[in-house]
Amino acid sequence: MNSSFRPPVASAPCLLGSDSDDLIHYSVAPAEVALLNGLSHAFGICLNENQDNPEARFLSHLASLFQQQRVDPETPLEKHDRPWGNVYLVQYGILRLFRESPAGKVAVHHFFSEGDLIWPVFGRSRTVRNTLCLTSVLPATLWVADFAAFRSAIQSYGDGQWHKFALVLTEEIAELTSMREYRKHTMSARERYQLLLDEYPELIKRVPDNQLASWLGVVPATFSRLKTAFANQNKTP
Ligand SMILES: Nc1ncnc2c1ncn2[C@@H]1O[C@@H]2COP(=O)(O)O[C@H]2[C@H]1O
């Protein structure tokens, strides 16, 4: 096939191991681009052609603190009773933030996915009094940096930069947490399940039901009943 007649779609990844002339190869952005894009998004810095300005140098210094790490599903990354030591940028995959009681009862608080920057927001989690755990739900490709080095790089970038950066996420988390609590107190499980479908359609497809149940605040049997009821409802014409 002549290249001028090639359709603008790539061949299926399962074919890319073979050597046919008909296969369409697109160059893949280097992994570091995902890291830089994630950091530029988190700091509200627009990266352009000019790499020689203070903002671009700051991002590239921050990026140099990160190492890429691939992890299997159910890999513990941070654990309660230990200081939370790292900051993570998710390139691919899903992680869950949860608490676990001494008797093994788990409460899932949050799922993080592609593009999320995860770090120990609250002072307590940076000490041995940390009560939060972070674990991969799926195989994940992460960028990992030491939290103290990350914070010190932001602090040395400019006066008040760390507080500016931290405040945005702290406000976001406070709002999410209070909204979750409010919904739990004022809405039925059915209404909350509907919101889960509307607001997080991707999570429903990727995260195991028992973890979604914990996040929604229902027992797995209730979650399964809701799932079946909604599936049947969507089937009826
Ligand atoms: N590093 C973090 N990233 C995102 N959410 C967090 C983080 N630390 C705490 N939280 C959430 O913020 C909530 C604050 O109230 P809780 O301690 O009950 O539960 C906490 C988690 O749900």
Description:
- By secondary structure, this protein is α+β, with helices and mostly antiparallel strands.
- The protein has a domain at 32-161: Sandwich (Jelly Rolls), CATH 2.60.120.10.
- Helices cover 43% and strands 17% of the residues.
- The chain has eight helices and eight strands.
- It has helices at 31-42, 54-64, 147-157, 161-186, 189-199, 201-206, 209-216, 220-235, and strands at residues 67-71, 76-78, 86-92, 95-100, 106-112, 117-118, 133-136, 140-146.
- The strands form two sheets. The chain has a four-stranded antiparallel sheet. It has a four-stranded antiparallel sheet with strand order 2-7-4-5.
- Helix 1 crosses helix 2 and helix 7 packs across helix 8 (220-235).
- The radius of gyration is 21 Å and the shape is globular.
- The structure holds adenosine-3',5'-cyclic-monophosphate.
- The site of adenosine-3',5'-cyclic-monophosphate has 12 residues, from strand 5 and helix 4.
- Adenosine-3',5'-cyclic-monophosphate binds at residues 97, 109-110, 118-122, 125, 132, 173, 177.
Instruction: Tell me the number of helical segments per DSSP (H or I, 4 or more residues long).
Output: 8
> Looking at the chains present, what oligomeric state does this protein adopt?
single chain
In this entry the ligands are: adenosine-3',5'-cyclic-monophosphate
Return residue spans where pLDDT drops below 50 for at least 5 consecutive residues: 1-11, 13-17
Overall shape: globular
CATH architecture of the domain at 32-161: Sandwich
Question: What's the level 1 CATH class of the domain at 32-161?
Answer: Mainly Beta
Indicate the percent of residues in helices. 40-55%
Strand portion = 15-25%
Structural classification: alpha+beta
The CATH superfamily of the domain at 32-161 is identified as Jelly Rolls
Please name the CATH topology of the domain at 32-161. Answer: Jelly Rolls
**Overall residue-averaged pLDDT value:** 88
Count every beta strand, where a strand is a DSSP E run of 2 or more residues: 8
InterPro entries: cNMP-bd_dom, cNMP-bd_dom_sf, RmlC-like_jellyroll
Protein name: Crp/Fnr family transcriptional regulator
